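anyone seen this seq b4? input:
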Amino acid sequence: MVKIRLRRLGKKKAPVYRIVVADSRTARNGQCIEEIGTYDPNTEPATVKVDAEAAKKWIANGAQATDVVAKLLKNAGVM
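predicted toks r here
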């Protein structure tokens, strides 16, 4: 199953995330199929940048977003 989820980057206690499309069986920071955006919770307000076309394409092809990513996509106006 293909999932849209977060990949953690950044320093200790200062995470930055990439929104990626990956197989659900791979590790959190493992190989991904495509990177479709970023999420930075350290800024005020939190910064979310998403390639809306790519996200819609993957959702239409059956990819499932995790709960956190679904909330981010909804707030960004993609879903």
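The chain has one domain: 2-76. Residues 24 and 70 are 16 Å apart (CA to CA). kinda curious what u guys think
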